[in-house]
Amino acid sequence: MTTLGEIRERAAAYQQDYMRDLERIVNIDSGTFDKEGVDRAGGFLRDLLAGIGCEIAVHPNSDLGDNFTATLRGSGSRRLMLLGHFDTVYPAGTVAERPFTVRDGRGYGPATMDMKGGLILGYYALRILRDLGFDDFAEITFVANSDEEIGSPTSRALIESEAQRMDAVFVLEPGRANGGVLATRKGVGMYELVVHGRAAHAGAAPHEGRSANLELAHKIIALHELNNPDTGTTVSANVMRGGSRRNVISDHASVEVDVRVPTRTEAERVHAAITEIAARQWVPDTETILTGGLNRPPMEKVPGTDALLNLAREIVEGLGFQYQELTSGGGSDGNFTAAIGVPTLDSLGPVGQNAHSVDEWVDLTTVPERLTLVTALLMRAPKRP
């Protein structure tokens, strides 16, 4: 059996190549709504994967970028999946302002951390398998999508369809520590409440008005009472709008609400509570319309997750690092795969910080160990229970 030392040696040998390819993909603007740029970034990644023998299947979109799968065939029986997105939160022109740069062992630039560093790491994991002649798998499919940053509306069905037949899914979102592996994330809910009231002169006839702002204020207080530190549930009203003029009783108001829940049971409870709050009336003759719901189900452990975590612990400690099992309040596409019962490990990419900011960076010194971890997981992952 190939040892961790042998894998790490190959991973370290690819460090300069990794940095070169990371620079090339980071320096392609690929904000979610920039279809041309997203497709260029996806095309760059497809070319890399095709170059090591992956079978490419493109799933075109008319408005957003095209999703794709890249599959390596082997002679074994295990079916494994790598998962990552190549869209970013940064608009076109960001690269011209802040191209990829290296300072003090860190790679700076848009999406170096989230998650182009992980995408390139996944490619090199497959490349190392080919270098070693390792093919003890039926298939390893790399699912790469173009719309994760807006909730994966066009790619969710593809992700779930591919994942259903897999023994394990490995998500290449950024890591937080060299010994860190993540197996649980909160589910993400996105709601909007729109209140309709009745306008009136605020000075001459306020009694004739029905304040949508006041109704919404009551609802926001009720929404915030759903927060539960014991369970980890958070409900926050984060974008509020209302009224038209200072001297007019507001006839319309709205709020966008973010919800994070650790379990599906808690998601159902909170959804029912939000529905009840929307239906309740504090100001007579107002009407509230509720839209939205759970965008990403909670990522919970399923049969087979603990076996993957034990394997990850063995690899991490074999590399000389302290193992850490992590969790997160943020969602990823791993939420979808775990929710349909497929053992999933997440945050396997290189370590980084400051995602979605002008100071986003990835720690390039962590690449050899994180690349070794992903490669060894692909080589040793057990079949799904």
UniProtKB/TrEMBL annotation:
One of its GO terms (molecular function) is hydrolase activity. InterPro entries: ArgE/DapE_CS (IPR001261), Bact_exopeptidase_dim_dom (IPR036264), Pept_M20_glutamate_carboxypep (IPR017150), Peptidase_M20 (IPR002933), Peptidase_M20_dimer (IPR011650), Peptidase_M20A (IPR050072). Residues 184-283 form the Peptidase M20 dimerisation domain. Keywords: Hydrolase, Metal-binding, Zinc. It comes from the Bacteria. Its cofactor is Zn(2+). The lineage of its organism: Bacteria, Pseudomonadati, Thermomicrobiota, Thermomicrobia, Sphaerobacterales. The active site is at D87, E148. This is Peptidase M20.
